[in-house]
Target: Thioredoxin 1
Amino acid sequence: MNSNQFLQKILEPSQQQLVVAMAVTRWSAGSIITGDQVDEFVKTHDNVTALQFDVEENPELLRYFRIGQVPTVIVLKNREVVDVISGLTNKKRLFNRLNKHLA
Model:
């Protein structure tokens, strides 16, 4: 999937639900941990969709979202970025930040 297709895939559903896009790399342990945490959150919230992209395979998205480190969690709602969580964070803090956007 190219960068434009990925953007369409995250922007369209964000009109109806919360979209969590994760900027990751295959070699980053933090990416794996954050991915597992986001997957757990999505399983308990029907109105949340999560997608990942590898920043090394999609450098255009790295620039588009101004990502400085991985993992980075980008939260979208109504086709707009409403939150960005850079770096590894604990599950409680991540869940609190995501829940804030469900109201």
